[in-house]
Amino acid sequence: TLGKLTELQTVNQALDALRSEILYLKAETEKEEKKHEFKKHQYEKVNEEFILAKKDFDLVKLEVDEIKEQMKTHEKKKKNIKTIKEFNALNSEIEALGKKRAMRESKLISKQDDLEFRESKLKTLDDSIKEIQARIDEKQKEADKLIKERKSKIDAAQKEKDTIEKKLDSFLVEKFNRIYRNKNQVSIVPIRDQVCGGCFMQLPHQIENNVRKMEEIIFCPCCSRILYIDETA
């Protein structure tokens, strides 16, 4: 029975190792997916800001274009002016429009700088999103390949586990599996120099003797693991 339990533990640990490889790759993929979602959220936010900045830029540019047209119209009017008073008045309007145009053009440059900054930020985020997506695709391929490679091994190990469990008492198997889950995937441990190989507590001499007799399954009174004698110690 102890031999079968040791085999069962070895098979369980092999299954856990195979599944852990797959889970690790899946976890790595999920990490990249979270980064991807975060970057996408950032991109959407910056893109909204870019759209608003573009509207502001277009509005100021329209104002500048309108002022330019007004100035052209005023310049054309000069040809039809007959008095100095009208000429001076028109010049004053052109001068005022010139100042207004200079202010708007200065504002336009500022808006253009802001627009270019946001556009550059969008490009950086877009490149980052593509890079992360490439990593996700690569890790997904690795995971798919690993799952395919490990499936036959997992199936074989599971079949072996089922075969061993059928040869053991169901109550003992249930207890063994419970210990395995609760004690870091180690249900059965050796005694070395009267010390439990699981919790490293000194065991009474009588317990070691009972384990040696192999008349029944003996559990460590401290950690509840199944004990056996390590004859190689």
Structural commentary:
With 233 residues, the protein is mainly alpha-helical. The chain has 2 domains: 15-168, Helix Hairpins (Orthogonal Bundle); 171-229, no CATH class. Helix content is 78%, strand content 5%. It contains 4 helices and 3 strands. It has helices at residues 2-77, 84-166, 170-182, 205-213; strands spanning 188-192, 195-196, 226-229. A 3-stranded mixed sheet has the order 2-1-3. Strand 1 and strand 2 (195-196) form a beta hairpin. Helix 1 runs antiparallel to helix 2. The two termini are 21 Å apart.
Brief synopsis:
The chain is mainly alpha-helical.
Compile the SSE list and pairings.
Elements: H1 2-77, H2 84-166, H3 170-182, E1 188-192, E2 195-196, H4 205-213, E3 226-229
Parallel strand pairs: 1-3
Antiparallel strand pairs: 1-2
Helix pairs in contact: 1-2
Comma- or semicolon-separated keywords:
three-stranded mixed beta sheet; 233 residues; 3 strands; rod-shaped; Helix Hairpins; 2 domains
